[in-house]
């Protein structure tokens, strides 16, 4: 009988010193509990550092709630993906852990196959028109969100409200607006997952086809056949490069000096005509393309470039410097596409019959369309919509500050969204009759305590996984996006002390260079030319930084993760899903990254 491999039980993980009581920040249903212990200990849970790289504040956990409801509904009840029902989640010491829910009954799987083929097949047959309509729906959601009002509470209601004969005052407008903002997130999560979940399933179908005909084909060869794409997530970096060229053309390149902040540079540019012209172009190009945040969009602290371009400003300065030297700063896509066509032609020629080649062509054409959308969608929802959504909540935060409930606008994010309903009812009740609200005497101190807890929880080192290693993982998203497979999990749990780390060969090539280990988005500014970026996970919004680094190594991520896709498009060798890179590697250590074999060698 095979030995059951286990990570620590979630009930064995200790609370960090000084963080006692962290549980009160989150609803009971999203915490591990003794009432469900038998079930929770018998499953695998892995740390979702890809989407939630930092301890999650009480409000931000709504994004896990909304998106995991959407993933579950799309998987289990909408498209009926045969082996996968979606993901469950828990919060432990402030960190989000998720668990895939499989379908284990073969008869049920077969029933779902028939439903999936009919439903997803309709989408695949009409993908181009559906995806174009999908983008238009997202833009309409953003426009609607922008129009949601949070007016000030007046001393006396204006007469136009009275004479409108509606009997509806400002308090109702604010309450309705908050409801609309919350509903907007749950709705956009559904729209988001409508495209993504069957996208992974389409890729897996092509992958299985290739493995059936070419059992020895490396995973990377399959992936390279669908590379060489030009998606919306690349557009912000293209606009940044265009602005670098414009700075040189306008004769203002001297303002872009290494070490200067964006605020210093922008203040200087505001003083003369060409500088103001460049700033106007920054704003024009930035709407919508700089509505891209430095994280994955699901935590409020990662601000859009339009609000704070600090994480990428050093790269803009570097682009300006290269243009002045006469260097090209264009991304080379031709070599990626040439390699794609070469590999595709070689494998196609090996197929035994015309029927097989026709099936190959049809699957490849579909997956290239779908693969495009898997990465392209991120800009529209995770970045543009989510950046605007967090800012809309800041408008409500401003109202709370004006009435003494909070000390800072972003304090709203230290209440769970259901607690905001309580605070809002308290505020509106006190305003309506002119009495003292409870909130100003309660929330400032409670928020400071929660900030202290989250700051201390940042020092906690979350285990990469909890619970039992399963024999198989059938969910295509968990395998392709997060890179969680039984083989990877066994490697994490049985790792030996070695100078070689193993992960997914996510982007080809072999390079050597010094490591730059970062744990925070703010540290992106420290990345130097020619270094190898080592982090828990990268974001596609870090694409400008990819122009500086020689290689990429991450703790988490699969072959279809956003980090893998962007690394391949930029031609940067990458090894993802090592599980322990940020724990084993120190900044300055020499590394060899082999993106062909999936190994990272540490030269002590």
Q: Using only CA atoms, what is the Rg?
A: 25 Å
The total count of strands amounts to: 12
Instruction: Give the overall average pLDDT.
Output: 93
Backbone shape: globular
CATH fold-level name of the domain at 495-603: Glucose Oxidase, domain 1
Helix amount: 40-55%
Structural class of the helix and strand makeup? Answer: alpha+beta
Poorly predicted ranges: none
Give a short account of the largest sheet: 8 strands, mixed
What's the number of helices? 20
Share in β-strands: 5-15%
CATH superfamily of the domain at 495-603: Phosphohistidine domain
CATH architecture of the domain at 495-603: 3-Layer(bba) Sandwich
Strand numbers in spatial order across the main sheet:
5-12-11-7-8-9-10-6
CATH class of the domain at 495-603: Alpha Beta
Measured distance between first and last alpha carbons: 40 Å
Domain PEP-utilising enzyme mobile: 528-598
Pfam families: PEP-utilizers
InterPro entries: PEP-util_enz_mobile_dom, PEP_Utilizing_Enz, Phosphohistidine_dom_sf
EC number: 2.7.9.2
């Amino acid at each position: 009988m095979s030995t059951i491999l286990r990570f620590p039980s979630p009930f064995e993980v200790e609370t960090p010193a000084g963080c006692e009581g962290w549980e009160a920040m989150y609803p009971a249903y999203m915490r591990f509990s003794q009432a469900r212990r038998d079930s929770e200990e018998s499953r695998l849970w892995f740390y979702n550092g890809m989407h939630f790289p930092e301890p999650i504040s009480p409000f931000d956990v709504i994004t896990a709630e909304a998106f995991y409801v959407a993933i579950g509904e799309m998987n289990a009840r909408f498209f009926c993906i045969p082996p996968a029902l979606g993901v469950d989640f828990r919060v432990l010491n402030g960190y989000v852990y998720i668990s895939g829910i499989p379908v284990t009954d073969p008869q049920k799987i077969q029933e779902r196959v028939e439903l999936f083929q009919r439903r997803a097949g309709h989408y695949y047959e009409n993908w181009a028109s559906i995806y174009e309509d999908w983008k238009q729906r997202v833009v309409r959601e953003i426009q609607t969100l922008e129009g949601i009002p949070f007016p000030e509470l007046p001393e006396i209601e204006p007469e136009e409200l009275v004479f409108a004969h509606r009997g509806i005052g400002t308090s109702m407008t604010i309450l309705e607006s908050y409801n609309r903002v919350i509903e907007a997130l749950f709705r956009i999560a559904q729209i988001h997952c409508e495209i993504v979940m069957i996208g992974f399933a389409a890729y897996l179908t092509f992958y299985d086809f290739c493995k059936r005909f070419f059992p020895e084909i490396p995973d990377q060869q399959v992936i390279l056949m669908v590379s060489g794409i030009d998606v919306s997530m690349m557009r912000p970096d293209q606009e940044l490069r265009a602005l670098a060229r414009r700075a040189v053309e306008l004769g203002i390149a001297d303002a872009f000096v290494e070490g200067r902040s964006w605020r210093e540079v922008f203040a200087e540019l505001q003083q003369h005509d060409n500088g103001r012209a460049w700033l106007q172009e920054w704003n024009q190009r930035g709407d919508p393309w700089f509505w891209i945040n430095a994280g994955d969009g699901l935590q409020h602290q990662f601000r859009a470039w339009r609000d704070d371009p600090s994480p990428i400003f050093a790269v803009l300065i570097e682009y300006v410097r290269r243009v002045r030297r006469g260097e090209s700063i264009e991304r080379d896509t031709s070599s990626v596409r040439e390699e794609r066509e070469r590999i595709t032609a070689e494998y196609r020629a090996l197929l035994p019959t015309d029927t097989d080649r026709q099936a190959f062509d049809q699957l490849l054409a579909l997956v290239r369309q779908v693969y495009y959308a898997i990465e392209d969608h991120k800009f529209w929802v995770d970045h543009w919509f989510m950046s605007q959504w967090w800012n809309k909540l800041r408008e409500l935060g401003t109202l709370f500050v004006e009435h003494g409930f909070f000390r800072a606008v972003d304090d709203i994010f230290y209440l769970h969204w259901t607690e905001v309903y309580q605070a809002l009812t308290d505020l509106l009740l006190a305003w309506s009759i002119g009495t003292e609200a409870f909130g100003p005497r309660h929330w400032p101190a409670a928020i400071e305590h929660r900030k202290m807890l989250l700051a201390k929880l940042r020092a906690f080192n979350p285990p990469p996984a909890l619970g039992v290693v399963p024999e198989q993982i059938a969910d295509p998203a968990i395998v392709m996006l997060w890179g969680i497979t039984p083989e990877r999990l066994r490697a994490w749990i049985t790792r030996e002390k070695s100078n070689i780390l193993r992960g997914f060969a996510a982007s080809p090539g072999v390079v050597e260079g010094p490591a730059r280990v970062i744990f925070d988005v703010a540290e992106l500014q420290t990345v130097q030319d020619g270094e190898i970026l080592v982090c828990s996970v990268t974001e596609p919004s870090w694409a400008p930084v990819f122009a500086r680094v020689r290689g990429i190594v991450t703790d988490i991520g699969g072959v279809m993760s956003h980090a893998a896709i962007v690394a391949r498009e930029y031609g940067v060798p990458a090894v993802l899903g090592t599980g322990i890179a940020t724990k084993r590697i120190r900044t300055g250590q020499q590394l060899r990254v082999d993106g062909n074999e999936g190994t990272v060698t540490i030269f002590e």
